[in-house]
Amino acid sequence: MSTLDEVYQRVRAQVGTSRHDDLGRVSARDFQRFAVAAGETDPVYFDDASARAAGLPGAVAPPLFPTSVLGWDAGPPQDALRPDGTTDDEMAGLPLAGLRMMGAGQDIDFHAPVRDGTHIVRETSIEDVALKEGRSGPFLVVTLLRAYRDASGAPLATSRENLIARPEAEL
Amino acid sequence: MTTRFFEDVAPGTKLDPLTMRPGRIQLFRFSAATWNAHRIHYDTEYAAREGYPDVLVQSHLHGCFLVRTALAWAGPGARLRRFGWRNRHIAVPGDTLTCTGVVTACQVEASGGGIVECELEERNADGVLCAPGTAVLELPRRPEKDRP
What we know:
The complex is a heterodimer.
Chain A: H1 4-12, E1 18-25, H2 28-38, H3 48-53, H4 65-68, E2 99-110, E3 119-134, E4 137-150, E5 155-167
Chain B: E1 18-20, H1 24-33, H2 44-49, H3 59-74, E2 79-86, E3 97-108, E4 114-123, E5 129-139
Antiparallel strand pairs in B: 1-3, 2-5, 3-4, 4-5
Organism (chain A): Actinomadura litoris
Protein name (chain A): Acyl dehydratase
Pfam family, one (chain A): FAS1_DH_region
């Protein structure tokens, strides 16, 4: 396995690059399952009439739906998962194999709500990577900038997110 | 929920706190709904090997709790313009997580929208800060004749 410093250098070389993913069409069922799982009860997520009464065009997805979903397609078969159960795709295709990943937070600007039938297209830019020293050893912080748009190109949300990558635990 | 107007809010106004108690079923369903197979959220043995006392509440679920706190306080007609959070401390099934917030700034933008900025905190029963956040909301405005 390569050292954290080698991974850092490989990710560093990709800063400034971006990739384009067609995430497909969202159904009300997708975001309503997310809403139920998150414990939401606000009828604007479930009921068109309630949403319209609140000035919305119809039922909308909870704000964090598009930036929380990790897998947008069928995903890899089980034996292609990384040892911690995550997928390479979640890591924006970055060369982070052999590292443990953890979400550290996001900063999101909301432009328009996701609704039943919204077709989402996402552009992900590798904005930065930093090698840091923590109490339990060194780790990487990868910063991704993600722009979510609908099929016509109209912006839905823009998110800056931090991922923490640490060396594999001793198994 | 009652409508909360921009004119009725000022810096220092406290948001209504919300308390959540995420359990294993909620974590499982949240992972399923986000197609997240990360073992840290359902495999207790795996979590122990990483040094954690139990499976972990998802990063984004902490975020959802803070968003709900802001939107439930803001009421119908409010719009979330911007939201950010950080994961500072872990939470596990059965933890009691209390989300609080306070208004830090209010301003009217050029287009007339009433913009309110809030600082948010999610803490566990020991008072440890699990997730700080900020939200920028647009609140409905009172009719001009009723404004102070």
